[in-house]
Amino acid sequence: ADVVLANHSFTASPVKKSIIKAKKFYYVQAYEPEYFYHKNFKDFILKTISRKSYQLGLNIIVNASMYQDYKEIKTH
User: Fold this and answer.
1) pLDDT by residue (tens digit) across 61-74?
2) Rg for the chain, CA atoms, rounded
3) Around 19, how many Cα atoms within 13 Å sit in the side-chain half-sphere?
4) Is 11 exposed, middle or buried (0-12, 13-18, 19+ CB in 10 A)?
5) Which of 23, 26, 41, 72 could form a disulfide linkage to 58, CB 3.0–4.6 angstroms apart?
6) Beta-ladder partners of 45
7) What is the secondary structure of the chain as a DSSP string?
């Protein structure tokens, strides 16, 4: 493969850790940590995983200009 594309925060880490010699991208469609708003332990863990997915070092592609510099999302 020439390109590997993660399209969800829970698929970003496996893509980052894969040993394939392809360009690795993360397509961000929304700020996913906002989906976990309940004040329970499960949502806290899922929100943390989602937030950290933006800092894995993948090439981030966003579908809206508002996400280019939005909270943990930083891309050009």
Assistant:
1) 999 999 999 999 99
2) 13
3) 0
4) middle
5) 26
6) none
7) --EEEE-SHHHHHHHHH----SEEEEEESS-GGGG--SSSHHHHHHHHHHHHHTTS--EEEESSGGGTEETTEE--
